[in-house]
Specification:
Aspartate Aminotransferase, domain 2, four-stranded antiparallel sheet, 2 domains, pyridoxal phosphate binding, binds pyridoxal-5'-phosphate, C-S_lyase_PatB-like, alpha/beta, single chain, Aspartate Aminotransferase, domain 1
């Protein structure tokens, strides 16, 4: 079927985190799309509601098979049911893996800029944050492997939290780049926790590589974390997976989950997960075409009206990283100027020092909303 991504759906007064305002501010921030979910997902929920019994629910063979098929057909990642562990979210999984791989006081390596919970969860787990800045080359971020190695050695880093694809920079790390990271981590016995929640939002002409698919022989130190929530815009449903190929590590993770009874998801999460991976492909394909058009639209608009913003074109996701240093000299003032103009973007500084005077804009909304939001950005900065 043909989906209509131009449709404007009123989300005010729905408890939406994104649309939290009491006025007509346009939200171009948190990673949540203003698109209705795929029809097969909505139909699957409807069937559950019509059945009317919402009792205790376990994972079915059909659910495992849907996850296995999606990942093997798209990314060549072979999984068995025993290698899939369910978790309430990717962020809770990050915490769980830090808990397993570290002791209080241990050092954890992250890149800068990075999705903020990488830092907050590391600190909450009693670990030291060791940060390695990504370097910008020809408009895209790259790892600074030399810097990472120095820091791993000096701080005896225990875990590298990898963001693959990268948020907020939108990089889809190539197999060669990931291989180099793997070699480095192997050399110093650093465990790798790869957050791959943006995997399915990889855009035209880029190829996503699951870190786990490279980690043969190092599987006891590697997990992949992913979810259907970002891909299919069902974040309110919650639910995610930990992929773990090492049997002993899988047992450890499951034991850890027993502590808080965290190994079960709810009926709606299982329902959505299965229908999304079985029948959501058509929606996703069309959503990515629309997102790519909105990225082009945004780049053109900014080139015309705010030509001194340096834009990093994403290779995955609908999040665009904007260097606004030509238009501002204070992070708070930059954010406040936008809020005064009734548009909200994420302030770059929340992603680390590298985010100074940067903004992250979410373009996953009907183009009419995006156009109005961009005109307010122009009004605030020009
Ligand atoms: C890199 C990354 N990881 C994790 C999450 C959130 O995951 P969850 O809602 O499953 O905890 C996000 C949400 O934006 C994200 O960008």
């Amino acid at each position: 079927m043909q989906y209509n991504f131009d449709e404007v759906i009123d989300r005010s007064n729905t408890g939406s985190i994104k649309w939290h305002y009491t006025d007509d501010t346009i939200p171009l921030w948190v990673a949540d799309m203003d698109f209705k979910a795929a029809q097969p997902i909505l139909d699957s929920l409807q069937r559950v509601v019509e059945h009317g019994i919402l009792g205790y629910t376990k994972q079915t063979d059909g659910l495992y098979q849907a996850i296995i098929n999606w990942h093997s057909s798209r990314y060549g990642l072979s999984l068995t049911a025993e290698q899939i562990v369910f978790s309430p979210g990717v962020v809770p999984s990050i915490s769980l893996m830090l808990n397993l791989f570290t002791e209080v006081g241990d050092a954890v390596l992250i890149n800068d800029p990075i999705y903020a919970p990488f830092v907050t969860k590391t600190k909450l787990n009693g670990c030291k944050v060791i940060s390695s800045a990504l370097v910008e080359k020809q408009g895209r971020y790259e790892f600074d492997l030399a810097d990472m190695e120095v820091k791993i050695k000096k701080n005896r880093v225990k875990v590298f939290l990898l963001c693959n694809p990268h948020n907020p920079g939108g990089r889809v790390w190539t197999a060669d780049e990931l291989q180099a990271v793997l070699e480095l981590c192997k050399k110093y016995q650093v465990a790798v926790v790869s957050d791959e929640i943006h995997q399915d939002l990889t855009l035209r002409s880029h190829t996503f590589t699951p870190f786990l698919s490279l980690a043969k022989g190092y599987e006891h130190m590697t997990v992949g974390l992913t979810s259907m929530t970002k891909t299919f815009n069902v974040a309110g449903i919650k639910g995610s997976m930990i992929f773990v190929k090492d049997k002993a590590l899988a047992t450890q993770i499951k034991q850890q989950q027993q502590l808080n009874d965290e190994y079960e998801l709810n009926l709606f999460a299982y329902t959505v997960m299965q229908s999304a991976y079985e029948q959501g492909g058509e929606w996703l394909e069309q959503a990515l075409v629309y997102i790519e058009k909105n990225i082009d639209f945004t780049l053109q608009y900014l080139a015309t009206h705010l030509p001194d913003i340096k834009v990093m074109r994403p290779e995955a996701s609908y999040l665009v990283w904007l260097d606004c240093s030509a238009y501002a000299d204070d992070d708070k003032a930059l954010y406040d100027a936008l809020r005064d103009a009734k548009v909200e973007l994420n302030s770059g500084i929340q992603y680390g020092e590298e985010g100074h005077l940067k903004l992250r804009i979410n373009v996953a909304c009907p183009q009419s909303i995006l156009a109005e939001g961009l005109s307010r950005v122009k009004q605030a900065l020009a």
